[in-house]
Design a protein that fits this description.
With 115 residues, the protein is mainly α. The protein is built from 6 helices and no strands. It has one domain. The relative contact order is 0.14.
Amino acid sequence: MDEIPQFCLDNGMISPLDYRTIEKWLLSHNFYALIGLQYAVEAVKSVLIPYNVLSFNLTATEAVHRAALERKVQSETWGTVEWAHSVEEAELTARLSAAVLFVYFNVSKSTTSVA
């Protein structure tokens, strides 16, 4: 029997410990950081990719590459429309980078004094 895809965390598909871990991570961010995180998630259609960029496990370029694997495989198979795919990749990299920087600067505890 095939499982029906679920679109929320309240479906029992993840363990209570994982649920609490995700909840704790999200609650550690202020409102503005969550807005930036939402922007990043919507850009790459994944929660894990922005998390890995914020955790310094991936660069924005690596993250966009992982987010666009399906498109890249199709492009390698069928060819690319250079201007369209290059523009799309550059836009996605810029959107993800901007969102991650916004989140980072909203949760960063360090301050810089202006001399």
